[in-house]
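I am still getting used to backbone structure tokens and would like to learn alongside you. Please make up or recall a protein chain and show it to me in full. Would you write everything just below, so we can both look at the same thing?
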Amino acid sequence: METRDVVVVGAGLVGLSTAYHLAELGVTNVVVLEREEMWGQGSSGRSAGGVRLEFSNPSGVRFSQYALELIEHAQERLGVHIPFHACGYLFLTRQKERFDTMQTLGAMQRGLGVPVEILGADEIGHRFPYVEMSDLLGGTFCDRDGIGDPGSMLYGFARAAKAAGVDVRLGEAATGILVEGGRVQGVRTDRGDIATPHVVNAAGPFARHIGHLAGIDVPVTPYRRSIYVTDAFDGLPDDMPMTLDLDTTSYLRREGRSILMGMSDPNEPASENTQTDAASLETLIGTLLSWVPRLERAAVMRGWAGLYEVSPDDSAIIGPVEERPGFYCANGFSGHGFMHAPAAGRVIAELIAGHPPFVDITPFRLERFKDRHQTRESFVI
């Protein structure tokens, strides 16, 4: 039987980040299994590309800070340039309880070096006049946030990992997890068995299936999320930030001369469907026009759909599984996979290599769902 130090299941951003960071720590006898014929064919290839520092716990903030650090130094670390446009993020709310939460979290975030501003409705109207909400209470703005390129990051991780000796196998699916005495012993694939003491579940929206192969329930559910892009449109500012209405989960931003827009429809059922449809577009347009009426003159040019891998508390599941030694989760990013893939891969690699994680991952442990210490994320789209 083939023997490997680590087997990573899934060659998206999280899986390839894990492989890269393992290699960086000197662990190169690693195989990454990907059932598709190309890496990044799942959620990674359908991301909106956002990176923001506003999260509800310090570990989430630090995860995003690490992503920005890696993007800044990508050329020297990965051998590629990752484009990044610091357009900022503007979060909006009409709800007093949510605005109070924003202010409380803003104090925590500023304590970690995040230059977040708390804005009242009048100031938002002055600085961002395209937002037209008669009952707007306020929001937050951070000019360090912005839009990166998931494809460049994906290629960089794959390139650097393979150059270090990691074996990335495309078109090879994990079909079983070999367990003996309660501990992971290997992985069964559709091409044979691989003995290994460490298996990393980086299967994105299919994380629950991989967990079941190991006899573990990973509470991750796939939901379709659709994104649409208009034709060239000059009715909104060229320098507009990523603008998000937390109350409706709708958002929009510049995509070159066009406008990119999307939302999380609360009526969307769990599924593996990645097809757009007229109903989702109609819901999105009606919602956005209620607070950005200038969009009425824009014409939709194209759209696509991907899958969010959603956890019960909208926060990631990261780390070793206590009841299955040798099995690690890096799942449930709930729409934050691109911005948190670098740090997630790093902490998993550090754990496997015997190093303390650079960030406290207690908020992300799987066992929180059993002891009812959930990590509720407030900034969810």
